[in-house]
Amino acid sequence: MGADILFSALMVGGVGLFVGIFLSIASKRFAVEVDEREAEIIEALPGANCGACGYSGCAALAGAIVKGEAPVNACVVGQAPVAEAVAKIMGGEADPDAVRMVAFVHCIGDCDQTTDRYEYSGSERSCSVISFAPGKGPKSCTYGCMGFGDCVKACEYGAISIQHGIAVVDPEKCVDCKKCMKACPRKLISEVPYGKAVAIGCANPDRGKPVMDACKVGCIGCTKCEKTCPKQAIEMNGSTPVIDYEKCVKCGLCKKNCPRKCIV
Question: Count of alpha carbons within 13 Å of 159, Cβ hemisphere only?
Answer without folding.
Answer: 23
